[in-house]
Write a structure and sequence with these properties.
About 45% of the residues lie in helices and about 10% in strands. By secondary structure, it is α/β, with parallel strands linked by helices. It folds into 2 domains: about 140 residues, Rossmann fold (3-Layer(aba) Sandwich), CATH 3.40.50.1000; about 70 residues, Putative phosphatase, domain 2 (DNA polymerase, domain 1, Orthogonal Bundle), CATH 1.10.150. Strand 5, helix 9 and strand 6 form a beta-alpha-beta unit. It is globular. The structure holds 6-O-phosphono-alpha-D-glucopyranose and magnesium ion (MG). 6-O-phosphono-alpha-D-glucopyranose binds next to helix 1 and helix 3.
């Protein structure tokens, strides 16, 4: 990628922003919790959004954490991932949220660099199923960083890969942990979801389908003015 002092980038979270894998994650955790006889529901699942698989397991096991040996916890992580990958295998391009492929096209036409920045270790396989992998200049995911969101590492990694400084990056996120990560990376962030979840974002849309290229480009321009 050419070094360009004026380059701008948009860094997309994946699960819950590009596609509804947030729900597939939820169903996989629910199945595991049911099998273990652990209390779990959508409200508990909200706390897992954006967190890595191991961090999520800690919340799912809660006060049963000590009942499982290290090797048993590793087996549970694998089991949850098997359930998740089974559902990912059934995904197709029709599973991208409405308007996302067009949005990526519009942003590309406006010369914006595009990256995915996700806590997931399965980001590439999901993007392949959606046939969107080639639409991004860079992918940074849970395989690239030691600390997951709310740590800023994955956004900083994505910014480095598209060769754009944080002040010229805009993040799109559905998770409270991801919004904190973007803020810690000193990037502007658009929240996707209800106000109680994304209140700390700089701007908000209710659903990913509501994202518009012109609005995102305006926010990017504002971020640059504030440099
Ligand atoms: C995303 C999702 C989380 C998920 C995490 C790890 O951030 O929001 O719900 O737990 O990625 O995903 P993985 O595919 O590696 O289990
Ligand atoms: Mg997400």
């Amino acid at each position: 990628m050419p070094a360009d002092g004026r380059a701008r980038a948009i860094l997309f979270d994946l699960d819950g922003v590009i596609t509804d894998t947030a729900d597939l994650h939820y169903r996989s955790w629910q199945r595991l919790a049911d099998e273990l006889g652990l209390p779990f529901d959508r409200a508990i699942n909200e706390h897992l959004r954006g967190l890595s698989r191991p961090k999520s397991l800690r919340i799912v096991l809660a006060d049963r954490w000590e009942d499982f040996a290290e090797s048993e916890r590793a087996a549970l992580l694998e089991r949850k991932n098997r359930y998740y990958l089974d559902s990912v295998a059934a995904m197709s391009p029709a599973d991208a949220f409405g308007g996302i492929p067009e949005l990526l096209g519009d942003l590309r036409a406006a010369d914006v660099r595009l990256a995915v920045a996700s806590s997931s270790r399965n980001a590439r396989v999901v993007l392949e199923r959606l046939q969107l992998l080639a639409r991004f200049d860079a992918i940074a995911d849970g395989n690239d960083v030691e600390h997951s969101k709310p740590d800023p590492a994955v956004f900083l990694c994505a910014a480095r890969r598209v060769e754009v400084p944080p002040s010229r990056c805009l993040v799109i996120e559905d998770a409270a942990s991801g919004i904190e990560a973007a803020r810690a990376a000193r990037m502007k962030v658009v929240g996707v979801g209800p106000p109680e979840r994304v209140a700390r974002a700089d701007a908000r849309v209710e659903r990913a389908e509501d994202l518009r290229a012109d609005t995102l480009l305006r926010l990017l321009a504002k971020a640059r003015q504030a440099e």
